[in-house]
């Protein structure tokens, strides 16, 4: 099986590679269109800012390549957000694979002054629940995953995992061959390794 | 937009067999972070982990803590000489290969180039301390280049007789006239994504964390605050999360010397109603 990781201007590619190594899988990091199209599976990682990442993808024609892939594709964190329709982060038109919009976390209205100050970005471990995808085979409801993000995908018809921060949002999305997770499976201990394995084993 | 009532509705009772008692709640958890001091690629403080093959190996010790349920790790390099910096990047690379939770690397970082090498080798975050105080633009440069999510500002602070908390540099050896709160606020505005706050008055005492300055920062700043210095008992962690309103608690020797185990600490916290990952 050939697994490729999309190479672009958003970080954390090393961490994904190392996590795959830990579960015994090797991957090719590339921005070459033909190599990406020919892969059995594709991971689209990312830590960074939406508009500059989209600009980079467009300049290299990677946006069209990504949208038209037919093999399983896993977007991680910013990668998942870029697969959505639109991001409030610098008002960015994204790939439009998922209809769900990406919004900025903001404190709930009428917030009690004594309640703890809302920290943005969300950094740390949170639960995933209402799990509805083969990506979560053998992953218990309420499992903890590691998140770092200031923007979130709203709940919608493609939501396959939910997490609560300020309000419930999509911590996982799925449509056809496209999968997305908001958390970092490569940093989410055994649960994350299970999810990566499930992606590798998808048929 | 949902309101806070929702959190109450999503509290989940944990069956008695689930262990730990208390309630499992949904939402972001408080983090427990062991800190490992590194010199020339080895952990510095002696530990009594008889069950480890080599407790001096930061990778093995870190992997042990990850397996025990640590939420993150901090590796603080106290290697004095510049020549040994290469040892650190090699170590970071080995840690990144073997450990499946996030980790921060700190100590002697003073440039975008230093950080770039560490992140390329797989560090998730880096922490800066004196170098950022001496040249605050560094925080800005790091935020622009790598994003605030990987920039942790470490502050060593001490409460003086006037009742104010001041910033100390160079591992606590050099006093400044700048108040801790002012520097933390400025650094967050410049792009720091988290504050690692160490109270010199409390560090090593095992008498509890500095709750006043921790809560002051945690309430006022829009980024997480990691409290460090003084954690000696499980109750001290309850206090730092409740009264101190810290987002994470960091400690070293109590974990290294098994005075407090991470699994028992987390069970205790959950029993006390604090949301932790178990």
Concise synopsis of the structure shown:
With 203 residues, chain A is an alpha/beta fold.
Which two chains form the greatest contact, residue counts included?
A-B, 48 and 45 residues
Estimate the strand proportion of chain A: 25-35%
| N-C termini distance of chain B | 29 Å
Which fold name is given in CATH as the topology of chain A?
Rossmann fold
Verbal overview:
- The complex is a heterodimer of chains A (about 200) and B (about 280).
- Chain A is α/β, with parallel strands linked by helices and about 200 residues long.
- Chain A has a single domain (about 5-200), classed as Class I glutamine amidotransferase (GATase) domain (Rossmann fold, 3-Layer(aba) Sandwich).
- Helix content of chain A is about 25%, strand content about 30%.
- Chain A has 6 helices and 13 strands.
- Chain A has helices at about 15-20, 35-40, 50-60, 60-65, 80, 190-200, and strands spanning about 5, 30, 40-45, 75, 85, 90-95, 100-105, 120-130, 145-150, 150-155, 160-165, 165-175, 180.
- In chain A, the strands form 4 sheets. Chain A has a 7-stranded mixed sheet with strand order 2-1-3-4-13-12-11. Chain A has a two-stranded antiparallel sheet with strand order 5-6.
- In chain A, β5 (about 85) and β6 (about 90-95) form a beta hairpin.
- The longest helix of chain A is centred in the last third of the chain and has 13 residues, at about 190-200.
- Chain A is globular and about 50 Å long.
- The termini of chain A are close together.
- The model of chain A has no long low-confidence stretch (mean pLDDT about 95).
- Chain B has about 280 residues and is an alpha/beta fold.
- Chain B is about 35% helix and about 20% strand.
- Chain B contains 11 helices and 13 strands.
- Chain B has an 8-stranded parallel barrel, surrounded by 7 helices.
- The longest helix of chain B is centred in the first third of the chain and has 14 residues, at about 85-100.
- In chain B, about 50% of the residues are buried.
- At the A-B interface, α1, β8, β9, β11 and α6 of A face α3 and α8 of B.
């Amino acid at each position: 099986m050939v697994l490729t990781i999309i190479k672009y201007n958003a970080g954390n590619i090393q961490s994904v590679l190392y996590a795959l190594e830990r579960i015994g899988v090797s991957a090719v990091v590339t921005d070459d269109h033909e190599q990406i199209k020919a892969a059995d599976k594709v991971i689209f990682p990312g830590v960074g800012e939406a508009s500059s990442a989209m600009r980079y993808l467009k300049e290299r024609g990677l946006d069209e390549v990504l949208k038209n892939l037919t093999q399983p594709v896993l977007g991680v964190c910013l990668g998942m957000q870029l697969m959505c329709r639109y991001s409030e982060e610098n008002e960015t038109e994204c790939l439009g694979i998922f209809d769900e919009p990406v919004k900025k976390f903001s404190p709930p209205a009428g917030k009690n002054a004594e309640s703890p100050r809302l920290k943005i970005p969300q950094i740390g471990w949170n639960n995933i629940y209402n799990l509805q995808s083969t990506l979560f085979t053998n992953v218990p409801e309420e499992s903890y995953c590691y998140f770092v993000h200031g923007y979130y995908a709203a709940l919608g018809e493609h939501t396959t995992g939910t997490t609560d921060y300020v309000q419930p949002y999509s911590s996982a999305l799925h449509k056809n061959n496209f999968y997305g997770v908001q958390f970092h499976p490569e940093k989410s201990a055994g649960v994350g390794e299970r999810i990566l394995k499930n992606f590798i084993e998808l048929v | 937009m949902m309101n806070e009532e929702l959190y109450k509705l999503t509290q989940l009772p944990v069956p008695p067999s689930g262990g730990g008692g208390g309630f499992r709640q949904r939402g972001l958890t408080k983090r427990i972070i062991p800190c490992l001091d590194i010199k020339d690629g080895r952990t510095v403080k002696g530990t009594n982990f008889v069950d480890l093959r080599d407790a001096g190996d930061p990778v093995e010790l870190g992997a042990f803590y990850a397996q025990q349920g640590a939420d993150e790790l901090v590796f603080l390099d106290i290697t004095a000489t510049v020549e040994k910096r290469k040892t650190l990047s090699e170590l970071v690379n080995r840690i990144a290969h073997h450990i499946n939770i996030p980790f921060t690397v700190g100590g002697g970082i003073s440039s975008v180039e230093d950080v770039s090498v560490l992140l390329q080798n797989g560090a998730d975050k880096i922490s800066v301390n004196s170098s950022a105080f001496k040249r605050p633009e560094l925080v800005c440069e790091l935020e622009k280049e790598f994003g605030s999510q990987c920039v942790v500002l470490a502050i060593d602070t001490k409460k003086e007789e006037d009742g104010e908390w001041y910033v100390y540099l160079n591992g606590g050896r050099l006093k400044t006239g700048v108040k801790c709160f002012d520097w933390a606020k400025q650094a967050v505005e410049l792009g720091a994504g988290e504050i690692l706050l160490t109270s010199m008055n409390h560090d090593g005492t095992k008498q509890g964390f500095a709750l006043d300055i921790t809560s002051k920062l945690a309430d006022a700043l829009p980024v997480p605050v990691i409290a460090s210095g003084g954690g000696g008992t499980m109750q001290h962690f309850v206090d730092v999360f409740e009264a101190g309103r810290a987002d994470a608690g960091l400690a070293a020797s109590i974990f290294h010397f098994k005075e407090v185990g991470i699994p028992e600490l987390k069970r205790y916290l959950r029993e006390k109603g604090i949301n932790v990952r178990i």
